[in-house]
Design a protein that fits this description.
- It contains twelve helices and eleven strands.
- The longest helix is centred in the middle third of the chain and has 15 residues.
- The protein has about 350 residues and is of the alpha/beta class.
- Helix 2 links the parallel strand 1 and strand 2.
- Strands 1, 2, 3, 4, 10 and 11 form a six-stranded mixed β-sheet that branches. A five-stranded mixed β-sheet has the order 7-6-8-5-9.
- It is globular and about 60 Å long.
Length: about 350
């Protein structure tokens, strides 16, 4: 996903120049943009008499590169599952002391059993579970199948976009063929490439940045993207014109997680923050803000807003896994697709 209303200077200088009030203990958090209400951060500061220094990143790759290039001082980071796996392998994460996070018990066990990137959650605590899907503007498209194959429709040529994201697009094609989104079989990836090349004839472009604005403006009628982006841009009084859905075939999904860096110097406070996030009322307020499926069972009775999609809609979806050496195979397929675009 993913902006926060509150940010400090996005640089390593923030961690060394003392952004904020002197005297208070500080907790340094590095998170996706638009990913937590400002009120949640402020309430934690008041409750624990501390100060949060909050930086944001636009992608897992940017986050990982910044940390590996020497950025230090962060306590909590929020990587997606495949990057949790990578960061464990790189010995970047501290273990989670579950005794200090009693609210971990509120997380739906049906969600936890699907996690492969950190079985038993030794290093991570789930934050949000979601997926990209398809948004259709019903003003312009009255009949359609709730399937990835909508991108095969020539009558919608140049009115559709897909994400400029290798794993999301190939994941959609693989799922449409009944294959795993993490397959390493060359023959399956070749078939997925042919599917995407057929879709490419009909889409206007691959776009991971402006798809929501273009959709809201009526330039695009069908887009692959994230519900939170689509509805944040679309006129809220006309939201009924939008049908956002997870295609029936499933696809790639993600789990963003709260982790504590091994280099953290405020580990007790970091544990306290993670536990606070999964307090039922606190988590419900975050869910109402983001409109994600609620993975905290105790929080469900406090949620007041209808989610953009439900946990049930993700039953056929798979978490993206770290591809390891097979990443080069995916890169080659994606390069073949993107040539000339």
């Amino acid at each position: 996903m993913k902006i926060s209303i509150f940010t400090c200077l996005f640089s390593c200088l923030v961690l060394t120049s003392g952004c904020g009030k002197p005297g208070k203990q500080k907790l340094f958090i590095y998170n996706w943009t638009y990913y937590i209400p400002d009120a949640t951060l402020r309430d934690f500061e008041k409750k624990f008499n501390v100060e949060i220094v909050y930086d944001v990143f636009p992608s897992n790759e940017d986050m990982f590169t910044k940390l590996k290039s020497g950025a230090s001082g962060y306590d909590i980071v929020v990587p997606s599952g495949d990057y949790v796996s990578i960061m464990i392998h790189e010995s970047m994460l501290d273990t989670i002391d579950k005794a200090k996070v009693p609210n971990f018990a509120n997380i739906d066990t049906a969600v936890l059993v699907r996690i492969k990137f950190d079985r038993g959650n030794k290093y991570s605590v789930p934050y949000m579970m979601g997926a990209s899907g398809i948004a259709v503007n019903k003003k312009f498209v009255s009949t359609y199948d709730r399937s990835w194959n909508i991108f095969a429709r020539g009558d919608l040529k140049n009115r559709m976009t897909m994400l400029d994201d290798m794993r999301e697009v190939l994941g959609a094609a693989l799922a449409s063929l009944g294959y795993s989104v993490n397959t390493a079989r060359p023959e399956e990836l070749d078939k997925a490439k042919q599917v995407v090349l057929a879709w490419k004839k009909n889409i206007l472009k691959f776009d991971a940045e402006a798809f929501a604005k273009g959709f809201a403006a009526g330039e695009f009628w069908v887009v692959q993207g994230y519900a939170e982006n689509v509805f944040r841009e679309y006129d809220s009084t006309k939201a009924g014109e939008v049908d956002f859905f997870i295609p029936r075939e499933g696809g790639s999904m993600y789990m963003d997680n709260l982790v504590i860096l091994k280099s953290s110097t405020h580990k007790d406070l970091a544990h306290a923050f993670i536990n606070y996030i999964h307090d039922p009322k606190v988590y419900a307020a975050i869910i109402d803000y983001l409109r994600y499926p609620c993975i905290n069972t105790a929080a469900r009775s406090f949620v007041t807003q209808r989610p953009n999609y439900r946990l049930e809609d993700l039953q056929k979806s798979e978490f993206k896994e770290d591809l390891g050496k097979d990443l080069e195979l995916y890169n080659k397929v994606w390069q073949d697709i993107r040539v000339g675009n």
